[in-house]
């Protein structure tokens, strides 16, 4: 099987057993409860059965955001759109976009209604939803880093050019098959698509893993997306968090 991320045992997220199914947000609150004025911004994270999901959720929590996490096959598109959330993040995961549950139809249905951000498999799902072809990557990279050259648009605003990103994938979006409304914003030195965005709608995707300690500026990328979700305060929190990760990254590479 072609993989977008390292296979792992599924993380089980069990709802409490009640007559009406309740979903638990990351901070422990009932995700179905009425929102209070003091409640933080919430986003829906569609979990594509990946071990990296809760690293992303942790980053989002550090940026003062609550997450509702649902597996890609345990809800419908209508149910996903029914959540009172400011944005939807499509996680990494194994396999292909066609096997990623509701991801591809959700992108089509949510476009223009709520900001979307796809990571790795989620990024590929955005490409497929817009008619692009997902093909075998020129090289298989799992846990390897590459420099990403970019134009500073969308979620990549404010990042150094190039920056280092961690990759776990054997598939990639074929740039030649992307429609005009989707622009590539980041590539490797060899031309592999690493980031793209919709020219008019708040839809971004990255092929690499912003939540990896070896990726530079992961908090800033998520904060850029959260700003489009109505959470600009995340941009104030990101620099300190990014610096902490950078210190760990430098220590890791020696």
TrEMBL record:
Which GO terms of type biological process are on file?
L-tryptophan biosynthetic process
The Glutamine amidotransferase domain sits at 44-226
Q: Which InterPro entries match?
A: Anth_synth/Amidotransfase (IPR050472), Class_I_gatase-like (IPR029062), GATASE (IPR017926), TrpG/PapA_dom (IPR006221)
Keywords carried by this UniProt record: Glutamine amidotransferase
Q: What is an example of a GO molecular function annotated in this UniProt entry?
A: anthranilate synthase activity
Keyword Transmembrane helix listed? The answer is no
* Key word Membrane present: no
Extract the Pfam families matched here.
GATase
Q: Which GO terms describe its cellular component?
A: cytosol
Matching entries from PANTHER family are given as: MULTIFUNCTIONAL TRYPTOPHAN BIOSYNTHESIS PROTEIN, MULTIFUNCTIONAL TRYPTOPHAN BIOSYNTHESIS PROTEIN-RELATED
Q: What is this protein called?
A: Glutamine amidotransferase
Q: Source species, please?
A: Actinocatenispora rupis
């Amino acid at each position: 099987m072609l993989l977008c991320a390292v296979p792992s045992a599924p993380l089980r997220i069990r709802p409490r057993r009640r007559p009406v199914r309740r979903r638990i947000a990351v901070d422990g609150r009932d995700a179905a409860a009425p929102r209070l004025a003091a409640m933080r911004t919430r986003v829906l994270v569609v979990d594509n059965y990946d071990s990296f999901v809760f690293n992303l959720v942790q980053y989002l929590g550090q940026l003062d955001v609550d997450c509702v996490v649902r597996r890609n096959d345990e809800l419908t598109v209508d149910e996903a759109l029914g959540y009172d959330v400011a944005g939807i993040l499509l996680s990494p995961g194994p396999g292909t976009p066609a096997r990623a549950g509701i991801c591809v139809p959700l992108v089509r249905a949510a476009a223009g209604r709520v900001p979307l951000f796809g990571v790795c498999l989620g990024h590929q799902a955005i490409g497929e939803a817009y008619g692009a072809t997902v093909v075998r990557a020129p090289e298989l990279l799992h846990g390897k880093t590459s420099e990403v050259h970019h134009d500073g648009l969308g979620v990549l605003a404010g990042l150094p050019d190039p920056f280092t990103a961690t990759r776990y994938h054997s598939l990639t979006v074929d740039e030649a098959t992307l429609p005009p409304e989707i622009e590539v914003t980041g590539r490797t030195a060899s031309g592999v698509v690493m980031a793209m965005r919709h020219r008019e709608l708040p839809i971004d995707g990255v092929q690499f893993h912003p939540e990896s300690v070896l990726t530079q500026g992961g908090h800033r990328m998520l904060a850029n997306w959260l700003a489009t979700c109505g959470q600009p305060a995340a941009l104030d929190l990101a620099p300190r968090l990014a610096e902490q990760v950078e210190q760990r990254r430098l220590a890791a590479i020696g």
